Amino acid sequence: NVPALKYRRILLKLSGEALMGKADYGIDPEVIGRLAREILEASRAGVQVGVVIGGGNIFRGAGLQAAGMDRVTGDHMGMLATVMNALAMQDALEQLGAFARVMSALKINEVCEDFIRRRAIRHLEKGRIVIFAAGTGNPFFTTDSAAALRAIEVGADLLLKATKVDGVYDADPKKNTDAKRFERLGYAEVIARNLQVMDTAAIALCRDYNIPLRIYDMTEPGNLMRILQGEPIGTLVHS
Ligand code: UDP
């Protein structure tokens, strides 16, 4: 008796760091394989899945700038890093027999498709997993903002942010044993209290276009399907 799914189309944000596993750089094949299996499980259950992957496991513009590089060049490198991660996820999904397409906000046509909104929606409708690469295509943005943007553009009914903690807390749970986890939060509260959920541009987009956002622990196997079946895992940010 399989519970009905609560969502029709979701946008999942994975940070680049999510792919590293225990290493401090790059991609752990075991970790990306496990994430791919969970994504495919959701897709096969009938949910249309878009994925935005970060690049922080390889390069971040701010980090390169701190090391002396021009910021815009650093951001270009960060966006290219997300393309590499997206290709790795596409490969991991295809190895499992899934249909997946990388669509990039920067044109790299020998490597992947361009992001064209109507085509992205068509892929989703056909049950293909769409991996949105290169963030928004603009420097000074993050892949969190890209995730909010793509979620709105393709009409996702839920934005999921996969992290290593089981939701949003009022203090750092690693440093403070009294830290309390929020089950629900309003967008305004996230911004006013400066809770580190997603960057402010991403939260503001979610708020303005009223897309619910759930922050959950992706290191716990099965969480993605549980959420899609309506279990209140992690923290929900809503209006
Ligand atoms: N980036 C950018 N514009 C975007 C998205 C990303 O310039 O729209 C660059 C930026 O330098 C960022 C890097 O790509 O640091 C990697 O993305 P992000 O830091 O969001 O990755 P994550 O933290 O999710 O791994």
From TrEMBL:
<keyword id="KW-0808">Transferase</keyword>
<comment type="pathway">
    <text>Pyrimidine metabolism; CTP biosynthesis via de novo pathway; UDP from UMP (UMPK route): step 1/1.</text>
</comment>
<dbReference type="InterPro" id="IPR011817">
    <property type="entry name" value="Uridylate_kinase"/>
</dbReference>
<feature type="binding site">
    <location>
        <begin position="136"/>
        <end position="143"/>
    </location>
    <ligand>
        <name>UMP</name>
    </ligand>
</feature>
<dbReference type="GO" id="GO:0044210">
    <property type="term" value="P:'de novo' CTP biosynthetic process"/>
</dbReference>
<dbReference type="InterPro" id="IPR015963">
    <property type="entry name" value="Uridylate_kinase_bac"/>
</dbReference>
<feature type="binding site">
    <location>
        <position position="163"/>
    </location>
    <ligand>
        <name>ATP</name>
    </ligand>
</feature>
<keyword id="KW-0067">ATP-binding</keyword>
<feature type="binding site">
    <location>
        <position position="75"/>
    </location>
    <ligand>
        <name>UMP</name>
    </ligand>
</feature>
<keyword id="KW-0963">Cytoplasm</keyword>
<dbReference type="GO" id="GO:0033862">
    <property type="term" value="F:UMP kinase activity"/>
</dbReference>
<comment type="subunit">
    <text>Homohexamer.</text>
</comment>
<feature type="binding site">
    <location>
        <position position="60"/>
    </location>
    <ligand>
        <name>ATP</name>
    </ligand>
</feature>
<keyword id="KW-0665">Pyrimidine biosynthesis</keyword>
<dbReference type="GO" id="GO:0005524">
    <property type="term" value="F:ATP binding"/>
</dbReference>
<dbReference type="GO" id="GO:0006225">
    <property type="term" value="P:UDP biosynthetic process"/>
</dbReference>
<dbReference type="InterPro" id="IPR036393">
    <property type="entry name" value="AceGlu_kinase-like_sf"/>
</dbReference>
<feature type="binding site">
    <location>
        <position position="169"/>
    </location>
    <ligand>
        <name>ATP</name>
    </ligand>
</feature>
<comment type="similarity">
    <text>Belongs to the UMP kinase family.</text>
</comment>
<dbReference type="Pfam" id="PF00696">
    <property type="entry name" value="AA_kinase"/>
</dbReference>
<feature type="binding site">
    <location>
        <position position="55"/>
    </location>
    <ligand>
        <name>UMP</name>
    </ligand>
</feature>
<protein>
    <recommendedName>
        <fullName>Uridylate kinase</fullName>
        <ecNumber>2.7.4.22</ecNumber>
    </recommendedName>
</protein>
<feature type="binding site">
    <location>
        <position position="56"/>
    </location>
    <ligand>
        <name>ATP</name>
    </ligand>
</feature>
<dbReference type="GO" id="GO:0005829">
    <property type="term" value="C:cytosol"/>
</dbReference>
<comment type="function">
    <text>Catalyzes the reversible phosphorylation of UMP to UDP.</text>
</comment>
<keyword id="KW-0547">Nucleotide-binding</keyword>
<dbReference type="InterPro" id="IPR001057">
    <property type="entry name" value="Glu/AcGlu_kinase"/>
</dbReference>
<feature type="domain" description="Aspartate/glutamate/uridylate kinase">
    <location>
        <begin position="9"/>
        <end position="216"/>
    </location>
</feature>
<feature type="binding site">
    <location>
        <begin position="13"/>
        <end position="16"/>
    </location>
    <ligand>
        <name>ATP</name>
    </ligand>
</feature>
<keyword id="KW-0418">Kinase</keyword>
<dbReference type="InterPro" id="IPR001048">
    <property type="entry name" value="Asp/Glu/Uridylate_kinase"/>
</dbReference>
<feature type="binding site">
    <location>
        <position position="172"/>
    </location>
    <ligand>
        <name>ATP</name>
    </ligand>
</feature>
